[in-house]
Amino acid sequence: MLKKDEMKFKINRDHFGSGLQLVSSVVGVRKTMPILQNVLIDAKEGFVHLTTTNLDLGIRCAVKANVIEEGSITLPVKELTRIVRELAEMEVSVSSQNATKATISTRGSVFNIIGMESREFPPLPVLENAKNFELVREELTNMLRSVSYAQSVNEERYMLKGVFFLLEPENGISLVATDGRRLAVSSKKISIKEDERGEFILPSLTVSEIERLPKVSDKIVLNHTDRQVAIKLTLAEESSEESSGFSDSIYLVSKVVEGKYPNFKQVIPKDDFYQAKIERELMLECVHRAALVSDEKVTLKLKAGELEIFGQSTLGDACESMDIDYDDQETVVSFNPKFLLDPLKSITADTIIFEFRDDMSPGVFKVLNETKDKDEFLCVVMPIRTD
Asked: Which structural domains are found in the chain, ordered by start?
């Protein structure tokens, strides 16, 4: 009878490489558990399942293959990914005669790779009694990209090192990120039942993995408990033949950041501010050019119909001007240019609303829902004192 650790399959090089590339960024660094630097390769029923984990985050995908003998092994994922990428032939044969060694071969190339037994690989957790809801994949990734730049990188403020998910039947879903100097909120009015109400903080590494998920499914099913979140993309049968090679499903499971997220609604200004309607891409270009001479501060002068953007440093100075929809009092405010560029880059709306009051008050970027009078996107940026 065939042992489980014996294995043989043939697979498309590019499909194999795509699967390995997807899972290769989720590896462990614990020297006491070297198997966490390996990928679990499990060949069965016409698919090769690839799994990696660092115990906080795990990911599994399936790639279509011609499975001749079912079996499993774990191999160093970084090295294996490099080898598969460099192979000259399109058809790749993978086989193992024992639990710790595999042969990767094409016509003219043979690699014998030392691995570890698959039975030592920690299984990915399955969430029990979890709340779940469904989202359009592109909507979720766009919402994450519109806020993820504002996550904190400060190890001491660990609760801010992620994106806060708030699920409310009355408001839908809100994604929030802040580092204390800026706050980004993206909201979407979707149907959430009362028993789906909840909140959790998704770690920054998990956010990055979700943002780079391949475009192989329109829907994402998200399950969450108090301690873990799982995301599953189920592929349509016809998707398995597409150029990516992904089949069946992609499964990602992560621990959440423990702790209580601060009340972000208190940071959003409630006072009356001046409002200007601005062409987003043109403002992005102007701020970018002004920041070429001053990467620490740019000054905005808003007056009727015009926005002027100044940059000044020991290098020299720069001035950019653009037309805007504004007819109120002339005002001068200054900001860190990076804090302006990040939201301008991340959102896709052609027109934004910029709210401001004076050089001591925060600036607010807004994108309004076209069909409902509700903020789809909001970013609060703390000012720099204007000299």
From this structure: 7-120 (3.10.150.10), 131-264 (3.10.150.10), 268-381 (3.10.150.10)
